[in-house]
Amino acid sequence: MNISEIKQKIDSIDFKKLYCCKDGEEKKYIQRFERLLDAFSKTFEKDGDIRLFSAPGRTEIGGNHTDHQHGAIVAGSLNLDVIAAVRPNGENVIRIKSEGFPMDTVTLDSLEPDSLEYGKSSGLIRGIAACFAKKDYKLSGFDAYTTSNVLKGSGMSSSAAFEILVAVIMNSLFAGEELSSMEIAKMGQYAENVYFGKPCGLLDQAACASGGIVAIDFADNQNPKAQKLNFDFAETNYALCIIDSGADHESLTGEYAAITLEMRAVAEYFGKEFLNDVSPEDFYKNLADVRKTLNNDRALLRAIHYFNDTQRAKDEAKALKNGDFDKFLKIVSESGRSSYMYLQNVYVPKDTKNQAVSLALALCDKLLCGRGAFRVHGGGFAGTIQAFVPYDMLESFKNGIESVFGDGMCHILSIRSVGGVEIKL
Hints:
With about 425 residues, this protein is α+β, with helices and mostly antiparallel strands.
């Protein structure tokens, strides 16, 4: 289908399903796709056989810093996404131009990892192509233009959304859509680990690929159990708000790494690599000796958070599965308190003047007056928090947050039901 034909049919896209929009709000999404097509045409000066794709950002709902210890999480796909217009080019090269960034060009005759591509999107593209090649799918080149409204540095996983987008494109072009969402997620994780040079778990990619709300148990990390929860968030009369504290993630790598290292130190005391292989009963039975051996009380507190929060994630999934949203909110609040008290990832201890995440949490506490729920979102220390806000409080809540943190810092979002997908007209 050429660009003109697609534009004539864009209004047939189910925007309510993709973006949870209300009647009358479709126009801005139609215009977004029209701009995408125009940008593709201008960039590649080609037409015909154009296809459209989308992959959402994600939000961590339950299980804060549990995935890297092979625990459980709950996550959801957001109604923010990265979209692409794609056309096979008949060559042996993939070209992807992302709005605001230089063109990425990857030749398919060389799919080995290249350290020069660490930290670059070309490495992600090459890594995902390598995954398809290893499965003996016949690859060929394509041109793509992408644009994204997934907020960077917000815990919404813009990089994972891009990975899933690329994998969904290849799944459609080369594999007849044979691969499952979890297989696609694993490809994204592999590309990020091996070709991008960044160690990461599977949480982000699995949530972006699956769509809706998904519960994942990483006990068997090679084959995590993922369950898509049949829960309609739109029926709750609550809004999902992601609040940007304005704090910067730069120079916090050591703080994030310390959480993993300290949790693993506790696991190693018991001869295990990950906390999920340690029973809470053994931990508490030996707590005095663990404390004496490690000489690090924070490591013990972080282990306590892990044991409780991985169980909370399972309980959240059960509550949603049973349609008990009030219980879900209660557990979210418990998780938030645990992150603050035990995990201690809301501020950097040595930087007492900059505690934006803590201040945002305190403001949520005041504005919600005991209703809804709120918690630190993602890695912590800086960045964002998450709040579930009753519709009748939404306007005053947003105004209250933005009066302190600035206009546009409270993002009102929804959980969308579909993950990475080709948009078929």
